[in-house]
Specification:
The protein has seven helices and 22 strands. The protein is of the alpha+beta class and 353 residues long.
Length: 353
């Protein structure tokens, strides 16, 4: 059989659905167990107020009490746990339906937390919050406040991870209880550590203002006991290019392009040009276009030639009915559409005969 042409093969590949990202998408056993428990708990909520439609309050209380712990209610909950195409959910439910039934009928009162009993204690696929790994060890900082409440414990609540802390912005250290540069400790005791951002002028600080800096940030300098912005634009050697102007901003500067009419500039627009580009001249403090066609000397030297001003320049154009030659605009058609005299294409008239 002949192999398909490259173009046809490429088209076929484009039409095929993209392969799933198996490693990134595949749920862990703990996540699947947690999802099943979450659906079970939602099913309990959905069926909590279900009754048999009677009008006798005493009868309803007695009937509802029986329904609350009944196998009928359990069946209604389990029937709604998995979608029709959710194979993994159906497989997990089928494998452990006996455990769920035992908890529902006999163990629910003694172990009210289904996740803890089912996923942590029975199946051993998850850990309690604040613990991690195969043996469910406490996270750094303890299981009650992992990572001092300022970070995420690797593997928290699962049988995976190493218990190390990934600290939130502003925090560092094994238990995320220390402040990074640019932050200071605004509260610290045996259980809590809170880091607050320094003033933007500080690299390190002990408080919130620019006078509390231990060291100034780049672009700032100590002045009268406070970190003040350095105006880089005022330096002896300009930090920007010849066709740029400098704008100072807090802690830094930006270089902006000069106006197109400028040769060098000190700011934005044609009013801040040092000099003007050819075709422009200073008028009322800014570079304006020179109208070469309105000058005392003719910009267009050839006879019959018309001058048209353009931004920064001008163009010379022969009018309609004239031919462009090297030295002049030569008339090829007289007014009214007659061929000009002397034109070799002109036909003799009766007066010429």
């Amino acid at each position: 059989m002949r192999s398909p042409a490259p173009t046809a093969l490429g088209l076929l590949l484009l039409l095929l659905p993209p392969p799933p990202a198996e490693a990134a998408k595949k749920a862990t056993p703990c996540k699947r167990c947690r999802e099943l428990v979450d659906k079970f708990n939602r099913g309990m909520v959905d069926t909590a107020k279900k009754n048999f439609g009677g009008g006798n309050t005493a009868w309803e209380e007695k009937s509802l009490s029986k329904y609350e712990f009944s196998e009928v209610r359990l069946l209604e909950i389990t029937e709604g746990l998995c979608g029709s195409s959710d194979f993994e959910c159906h497989s997990l439910l089928e494998e452990h339906e006996g455990h769920l039934e035992a908890w529902w009928l006999r163990l629910k009162k003694d172990f009210p937390d289904l996740f803890e009993w089912f996923c942590v204690k029975t199946l051993k696929v998850c850990c309690s919050p604040g613990t991690y790994g195969p043996d469910c060890l406490p996270c750094q900082g303890g299981s009650q406040r992992p990572c001092s409440g300022n970070g995420h414990c690797s593997g928290d609540g699962s049988r995976q991870g190493d218990g190390s802390c990934q600290c939130h912005l502003g925090y560092q250290g094994a238990t995320c209880s220390d402040c990074m540069d640019g932050y200071f400790s605004s509260l610290r005791n045996e259980t809590h550590s809170i880091c607050t951002a320094c003033d933007e002028s500080c690299k390190t600080c002990t408080g919130p203002s620019n006078r509390d800096c231990g060291q100034c940030a780049v672009g700032w300098a100590q002045e009268d006991g406070a970190c003040m912005d350095v105006d880089e634009c005022a330096a002896d050697t300009p930090p920007c290019g010849n066709q740029q102007y400098c704008e100072n901003v807090n802690g830094s500067f930006v270089c902006e392009e000069c106006d197109s009419t400028c040769v060098g500039c000190t700011g934005k627009g044609p009013g801040h040009c040092k000099e003007c580009v050819p075709g422009y001249t200073k008028e009322s403090g800014q570079c304006a276009d020179v109208d070469e066609c309105a000058g005392p000397e003719k910009a267009c030297a050839r006879q019959h030639e018309n001058c048209y001003n353009t931004p920064g320049s001008f163009v010379c154009v022969c009018p309609e009915g004239f031919e462009d030659t090297e030295d002049a605009c030569v008339q090829t058609q007289a007014p009214g559409g007659e061929v000009a005299e002397g034109d070799p294409t002109r036909q003799p008239s009766r007066e010429d005969l």
